[in-house]
Each structure stands twice: as structure tokens, then as C-alpha cells.
Design goal:
95 residues; alpha+beta
Length: 95
């Protein structure tokens, strides 16, 4: 049986971490949640930095480095190294 795990891990330089996990039996729902988590992260940062539009490109120019942005993994670091976020979609095969 296939199970899909969407995880979001956010770490700060003061050794505090926030972890959130969602489990799905349907891959389409997991993909939707993964994309939603990435969009929410981008929207949150754009609101925080008072951008009029939500744009990953604007964030990359000024505030974050996107280490990886693929269909199942998103990793970003703040320029000053104080924050890291990793959002991942993992397929698990349970027996």
C-alpha cells in the first residue's frame, strides 16, 4: 500500500525547529498539499516583507536563496542564515 507524506520543517539559527506532517493515501491530494505548503511559505514571506505581489523571484533577489525547487522537494535559506525551510513529498510503501 502506498502512502504519501508531506513534511514541512522550518529551522532557525537559535536551534528552534517547527515540524509539520500530513499523510495521504492519494497522491493527487499529497501533491496539492505540497504545492499549497510552498505557496503558503512564499505568501507569508511576501506579506512579512510587505510585497504587493506574491513572487518567489522577488524574494530570491532580496531575502532568500532557493537551494532546490522541484516537484517533490523545496528548500530555501534566508540570506543571513537565520532560517531554513524544507518542504518535501515522500512516497512510502507500507506492507
Amino acid at each position: 500500500m502506498k502512502v504519501y507524506l508531506v513534511s514541512k520543517i522550518k529551522c532557525w539559527s537559535d536551534e528552534i525547529a517547527y515540524k509539520e506532517y500530513d499523510c495521504f493515501s492519494n497522491k493527487e491530494d499529497a501533491i496539492k498539499r505540497f504545492e499549497q505548503q510552498v505557496d503558503l511559505y512564499i505568501c507569508h514571506l511576501c506579506d512579512y516583507y510587505d510585497f504587493e505581489i506574491n513572487s518567489l523571484e522577488l524574494l530570491e533577489d532580496e531575502y532568500i536563496t532557493v537551494v532546490h525547487n522541484g516537484p517533490n522537494l523545496f528548500i530555501a535559506l534566508s540570506f543571513d542564515g537565520t532560517e531554513e525551510v524544507q518542504i518535501e513529498l515522500t512516497e512510502l510503501d507500507l506492507q
